[in-house]
Write a structure and sequence with these properties.
Strand content: 5-15%
Bound molecules: zinc ion
Distance between the termini: 12 Å
Order of helices and strands: EHEHEHEHHEHEHEHEHHH
Largest sheet: 8 strands, parallel, barrel
CATH class: Alpha Beta
Helix content: 25-40%
CATH superfamily: Aldolase class I
Shape: globular
Oligomer: single chain
CATH topology: TIM Barrel
Number of helices: 11
CATH architecture: Alpha-Beta Barrel
Number of domains: 1
Length: 307
């Protein structure tokens, strides 16, 4: 399967943060299996946070272990610190993402640490993963609130660049920019990507976008033009951040696939199979609104995937 772009599905992790009732493990496994069956190459299946803080993630190890049995799937997880990274490694995760916030206010609200403290936490976790013998998981840093913060407002671009440089020096394989609040606009995305990539090159390789202002896919389009080939998204646009008030869900996987394929970029994902995964999601989370233009409108007459 040739893919031009990697669509990394984050619904089972980001999507569940805001959901009130705890999804049973068996339902999560069915959901993840359906996402894999749709051809998604990478799924962020869990976050290794303390279960007393996020009860939705109490089964992180079990879910991760299951996901590693799905053929060819790149299993991604989030870890807040060294302890989380150790648990993620023990569960067999292929990719571990540490998140840091570019906004001091969001860092304190979300991670309960200053930016400087969280940078040290991320470096400690990275040093551990990098020291593992044999084939180690890939190591990603996600810079949250890179395009603005719903608590403090503007986030200086110089802060994001400085953070990206420090993370590259710490040995992270890849550094992603996250529009946690969903405030970014296309010009800003282009400008910040160029600023960061001037310093650390293609190591800044992925974007995590929310669709609060409806500009998520416009931001994808400029990122594609800038050379980005890895995008996070969530089936039906689930998601949000409990510490980013007003932020809405991730960009919709179905619509992202439609956009990328329309731009001639192969994703390897079947839109019809994603519709099947949506049905599982609708049963699992009957109270959650499911978003998405493709699901509403269906396949346009004569439209075909990229060849
Ligand atoms: Zn997010």
């Amino acid at each position: 399967m040739t893919r031009d772009v990697t669509v990394s599905e984050v619904g089972p992790r980001d999507g569940l943060q805001m959901v009130r009732h705890v999804v049973p493990t068996a339902t999560k496994l069915r959901w993840i299996a359906a996402l894999h069956a749709a051809g998604l190459p990478e799924i962020e299946v869990a976050s290794f946070v303390p279960p007393n803080l996020v009860p939705q993630m109490a089964d992180a190890a079990e879910v991760t272990r299951f996901a590693t049995t799905l053929p060819g799937l790149h299993v991604a997880v989030l870890a807040p610190n060294l302890r989380g990274a150790e648990a993620a490694v023990a569960a067999g995760a292929h990719k571990i993402t540490l998140t840091l916030s570019a906004s001091e206010a969001h860092s304190r609200a979300n991670l309960r640490r200053s930016r400087a403290e969280q940078m040290q936490v991320a470096k400690d976790a990275a040093a551990y993963v990098l020291s593992l013998p044999g084939k180690r998981p890939s190591l990603e840093a996600g810079i949250s609130t890179a395009f603005g913060c719903s608590i403090q407002g503007e986030v200086p671009e110089a802060d994001v660049v400085q953070m990206a440089v420090a993370l590259a020096e710490a040995g992270f394989d890849s550094i992603g920019l996250s529009d946690t609040s969903g405030y970014a606009n296309p010009q800003q995305v282009r400008r910040l990507l160029r600023a960061v990539r001037t310093e650390i090159g293609a190591r800044c390789d992925s974007l995590h976008l929310h669709d609060t202002m409806g500009l998520g896919l416009a931001n994808v389009t400029v990122s594609v033009e800038e050379g980005i080939r890895i995008f996070d998204s969530a089936l039906a646009g689930l998601g949000g951040c409990p510490f980013a008030p007003g932020a809405s869900g991730n960009i919709v996987t179905e619509d992202l696939v439609f956009l990328l394929e329309s731009l001639g970029l192969r994703t390897g994902v079947s839109l019809e199979a994603l519709m099947e995964a949506r049905r599982i999601l609708a049963e699992a989370l009957p109270d959650e609104p499911l978003h998405g233009a493709f699901a509403r409108a269906g396949r346009p007459t004569g439209w075909k995937e990229a060849a």
